[in-house]
């Protein structure tokens, strides 16, 4: 997706999977040309370029036609999403990670897409016997606040922890966003992110191509 949650989810996956040695690329749809979410056209493009796996973030729980096309093309589709499935159920995929699917017994459901991505990557690093990189907490914090999910339970912990870490260190990209918002050396709050940082990222997908 091309909103803050989708962008931070994509960045978090790229950061972690590349760190784990994956050969991976990303695709953010163009709002005008591609529309929202995973489409048949996108799957066909991936097949033409010899991709064997598609991993969705912040979407994918509803496009049954795209999932069918992935099967036809021999592509393993892994869906990570935080939206509710349709009444007809979920698409047929290699794997689905969504707290709202009927088979999920995980007690907390209120994650943003970036939260679901973070949980999946945390498990991957645990299986590898490694710690997840500290810098992903910046992405987790931005996406969780921007998507206006309830700041309760795990979300509350992650945002509190993320803001605490941001007070110690931040990426070059975040420093630029702060300067654009005239926040400069200010210690960021959730309100600062929601009203001054996140809209700059959201604007990318509305003004032009978010991939740039």
The count of β-strands is 3
Given the helix and strand composition, which structural class is it?
Answer: mainly alpha
Helical residues, percent: 40-55%
Give the strand order of the largest sheet, numbering strands 1, 2, ... along the chain.
1-2-3
Cα radius of gyration in angstroms: 17 Å
What's the order of the H and E elements?
HHEHEEHHHHH
What best-fitting shape do the alpha-carbon axes yield? globular
Beta-strand fraction estimate: 5-15%
Summarize the main sheet.
3 strands, parallel
Low-confidence stretches: none
Output the number of helix runs: 8
| Span of the ends, CA to CA | 14 Å
Give average pLDDT, whole number: 94
Mind explaining what this structure looks like?
The chain has about 210 residues and is mainly alpha-helical. About 50% of the residues lie in helices and about 5% in strands. It is built from 8 helices and 3 strands; from the N terminus they run H-H-E-H-E-E-H-H-H-H-H. The protein has helices spanning about 5-20, 40-50, 65-70, 115-130, 135-145, 155-165, 170-180, 190-205, and strands at about 55, 75-80, 95. The chain has a 3-stranded parallel beta sheet. Helix 1 (about 5-20) runs antiparallel to helix 5 (about 135-145). The chain is globular, with a radius of gyration of 17 Å.
